[in-house]
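Lab notebook page, bench 4
Experiment: in silico fold of construct C2
Operator: M.H.
Input chain length: 94 residues
Purpose: comparison with the prior construct
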Amino acid sequence: MKIKKYLIILSIVICILFIPLIAMQFTNEVNWSFLDFIIGGLILFSFGLLIDLVFRKVKKSKYKVIIIISLIVILVLIWMELAVGLLGSPFAGS
């Protein structure tokens, strides 16, 4: 059963990563390297595992919602920092 959950999470990650892959075929504005896809996949997969862990371990639905929203906000902030350097860290994308 665990393998099935991992495959579902991996399938969702691959579907999300197809968005920039397809966009690269139609515009020059999206320019991802192979390393960008690897890093994006690792980030998305690890957040998927964290969300699955929250669903399994947290009992109260109110806390589940708060934790999952917090995780999504953290994911978006990390993604934006890596993409355009929102916070100006040394890992910034631009």
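Observations: The helical segments are 2-26, 34-57, 61-84. The chain has a mean pLDDT of 91.
Next step: discuss at group meeting.
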